[in-house]
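step 4 of 6: structure.
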Amino acid sequence: MSSILTVLFNGVAYGFLLFIMSVGLSVTLGMMNFVNLAQASFSMFGGYVKVTAMQSFGVPFLASLPIVFIVIGALSIVVERLIFRHFYNTDDLTQVLLTIGLVFMSIAIATYAWGGTYQRIDMPSWLTGQRDVLGLTLETYRIFLIAIGAAMAIILVLGLERTQLGAMVRACVDNRRVAGACGLNTELIFALTFAIGGGLAGLGGALSANLLGLDPNFPLRYLVYLLIIVSVGGMGTISGTLIAGLALGIADVMGKYYFPQFGGFVIYVLTVACMLWRPHGLLGRQT
Amino acid sequence: MKIAMKIAASLLVATSAAVLSGFGASAQETVKIGILQSYSGITSLGGQQTDSTVKLFMQKYGDTAGGKKIELVRRDTTGPNPEVAKRLVQEVVTREKVQVLIGPDYTPNTLAAAPILMEAKVPSFVTGAATTGIVGEKSKYSTRTFFAVPQLCKPLAAYAVKNGWKRVFVAVADFAPGHDCEKYFIEALKDASGTLAGNLRIPVANPEFSGYMQRIRDAKADALFIFMPIGELSIGILRAVNDSGLKASGIKIMGTGDITDETYIDAVGDAALGTITTGIYSTQHDSALNKEFVKDYVALNGAKPRIGWGAIATWDAMRMTYDALNAQAGAKFDPDKFAAFIHGRTFESPRGPITIDKANGDIVQNIYIRRVDKVNGVLQNVEIESFKDVGFK
Amino acid sequence: MSAIERLTPERAKAATGYFARLARWNVYEILFWLALAGMYFVPNVDLVLMSQIFIWGLFAMSLDILLGYRGIPSLGHAAFFGVGAYVAGYCGKFGWTEPISALVLAMAIAAVVGWLTGKLVQRVTGVGLLMVTLGLNLILYDLVHRSTDVTGGDDGMQGIVIAPVLGLFRFDIFGRTAFWYALIIAFILFVIARAVVKSPFGLALVGARENPRRMIMLGAPVEGDVSRAFALGAALAGAAGALLTQTTQFVSPNTLSFQRSADVLVILIIGGTGRLYGGFIGALVFLILRDWLAAISPVYWYFWIGLLLVVVVSFFRKGLLPSLETLLNRWKPSKADGPTA
């Protein structure tokens, strides 16, 4: 019994990890309808910023997280102003090609700046090891992931889906000219949303680097996972991303525990089945 | 359509210029060594390490051997990609007229290239592929300076049982080398009268290990044997073993040396401490030759990235190339004599003594049992026991 | 290209002999193929690279049938390439060494797989379609990669023997046979594909891409077209895969990797969709540049390839071929029919 509960707990934690990694993409793709695969690169840079802050400047782990959010958020504003804003009106494939090009460039940049090898990731001792909770021995970092993931989900759902800012962003995306005519500063809103999306991607990288390993190939390795979570959840919904992350996370861990011979299949098969069943994702708006 | 075609035709003419490269005649008295390694992406460290080692070797022993000037031709295989690797081998062999080849890396690349090297009679060194039987009859000009999978997988079974860890759980990466290693290890475990507590094949694209960890824990084994390719899987599983509390539960963690490779053991961190692995080489190896090698390497290339197995495999390949060229000094380069000189040779490498098998060019070498310890604050694979002259089958 | 897009189904019906005119070859097309063949005689040319360019070009053209003509973006096109490659590999391994018949078999099997895929996804569009094709590709890759006993797994399949083409031309280490074999097969399949897209079926595909609702009202079987387009695209992709196996006498899971699916999409979009030639142009540019960059900057060539993509989408938004075409149209106002973008 206790092993079932432990496996379930681990699945939930993995689900939150998937959510944390992909929520940045969910924001830009869902809210702004911009296929930004370079979010995976922002995640990688988030990881590197965290490592550099902690190792070169002695910043503690928790304090490094807001730094990551701000630095990567600022970086994504720069990229948005320089490049992305010229591509808002292009089709999906053009955006895919553009941003995959940026991913390639980011890999070379990271290799140049930090070297090709895997980074050493130090975690504070209070986040390592296991704790006994209600008779179960649980990994401390996974408890932390669930807590921070849940907090992010609440803030984002309330902040972006239920507020005026969220409504403003969606108004800008749906009809930019009308939104502008209504007095919205569309440029500013787009840039801000991009910053939030980028900052979240950076956080995702910073929070997952110790589990996933951090090297220049990070973006290509995990891009597929980001795409899967966001599209299974459905474009334009943060709660959908959360549900997809949790469902796939739990299914993956359970699948590995009970049917290890099926290996990594579970997540792919579920994705295909889900997309055939609901092509717009679990919570996606049908068009 | 018309205009499109006009453009297409002119584009073609323009690009045809780009395909042309180099010039035909090569100067006399040079030997061209092709270096086919991966320099890009996930696998870039392999190529960089090869380059660093070649640079060190040529700095130390000069750029001529046997009166011939050494010229290097580098190409990027881009990782396990036989389509590219085979094309590059064809290219360096037929157009660059390379006479000796270091690489290509990875088993599929090596297998795809073998017929070309055989037909063109180009001696090559396998410095980064470990599958059994990829050198030998079908590639008699090839020499392996790396290792063969059974060399690393078998000795650990005997070692575990000898130390009283009789029930062993086997976890391998779910791809061909992993299946290979699983087979050899389980065989050797049975021979040593140990028992298999369970086995798992873990997908190669896998960021999450907790389900597997729980399964291993349920099996209540004495030891866990791990085979993972170099890279994030090794880091991930060692961290998972530690974070999940599996290691603290008392189970012995062992594996092939890939999982604690020096090039990224720092990224694993203290989670790697105490891991028992088999290896062909550790920078901690206690010999004068190795101390000199490590000192020179660090002096030239810096302390990071750290020296891994690729470096030692390349070093020995260069060593044998120079020796073989010196042996045919003054004569025209002869690939048959070159291969014959190397095959059957025994010499002292920084890793310890090695022998190249006369019949098929595979390697016989000492296999070391190592434990991850902190030496002067740095994680190292410290050799604690050795198996002498382990064969490649 | 604009010739195709401007035509409405109504006009097509009205104009007898229209398809005959559409299918007529012009001098530049002939020049293009002659130039490709002429590459053989360029001194010191990398014949193996050229043969792989033809293969990639054919592969990209097969995606063009789906994406360019039917508007179906597939993120899993390497699956069909891999099916063809492995069928050819098994043929060579188990004694069916004659390459041309093995190639036809590979195409047939890939076509069946494509047709089934089309059946499966015919009601799915947009992101769903991307993810389903991607997912199927990943599943197939995983299956082949793990099944070491059956496929050789990650190490690749050993023991593939390919007999000389027509019993005369052995695959040599200089890549001479590979060059001609790949070029001629690619050309023949191009001719077939060209005939198909310039037939009523091809026009129906374009119609379904542009306005599926209208096609349905016209009584055209829009959904059935999806599986037929998939079958055709898959057959051509399978041929490209078989060509790769046969010219390299080796096959590994790399032939079905997601990386290959992404690369072929990049190649096609660089060249330009909806033209059949776009794939070949894209393959020429992409592979030659990649080879050259990897040689001069082995560690950092990713950067330059990335920059190439960014530049292409910034300045040649529809791909090289169509963008240059638009440019030329501007120079020649007499022939101009407005920017195609």
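step 5 of 6: annotate
 - Chain C touches chain B through 64 residues (CB under 8 Å).
 - Residues 2-257 of chain C form one domain.
step 6 of 6: archive
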